[in-house]
Amino acid sequence: MKKIFFTLALVTVMIALFMLTGCQDNENSEVESDTKSDNNSAKIIDFTYVPAKITIPKGGEITWINKDSAVHTVTEDNEDFDSGDLDKGNKFSKKFTDSGTIKYFCTIHPYMKGTIVVK
Ligand SMILES: [Cu+2]
Predict the structure, then answer these.
(1) Residue 40's closest CA among 75, 64, 76?
(2) Which of 3, 29, 44, 116 is found 20 to 30 A from 75 (Cα to Cα)?
(3) Rounded to the nearest whole angstrom, what is the distance from the C-alpha of residue 82 to the centroid of ligand 1?
(4) At 23, which helix (H) or strand (E)?
(5) Cα(101) to centroid(ligand 1), Å
């Protein structure tokens, strides 16, 4: 009898692990997805820029909106541009006229990173 319980417990743990891994995969694919939409809007949600990578045409504009209750910034790696502190609901817009790849981060939470590709 004990053996059956042990097997059941093991199977339950394995199913739980499998489901957990499945969820994480979904989250990652959403975060890394490219967007080429016209409005070029990005969200800051759960300490993450969504989408993390945005591709826009030359002259395109991106608007970030902070959906977190935490304060965030949108700051270029060399601080070429900086949104300043964005409270919940605050927006920051920036136009990109030169082609290239731009990396940005949050000065308050430097592990938050995003990429803009201007084509
Ligand atoms: Cu932040």
Answers:
(1) 64
(2) 29
(3) 13
(4) helix 2-31
(5) 21
Helix (H, G, I), strand (E, B) or coil at 79: coil
For 34-118, CATH gives 2.60.40.420
Termini Cα distance of the chain? 65
- Measured in angstroms, how far is the CA atom of residue 23 from the centroid of ligand 1? 23
Q: Where are the domains of the chain?
A: 1-31, 34-118
Residue from 108, 102, 106, 78 nearest 92 by CA: 106
User: Which amino acid would we find at residue 115?
Assistant: T
Which ranges of the chain have pLDDT less than 50? 15, 22-33, 37-38
- Does the pTM surpass 0.85? The reply is no
**Residue 42 structure tokens:** 């990005």
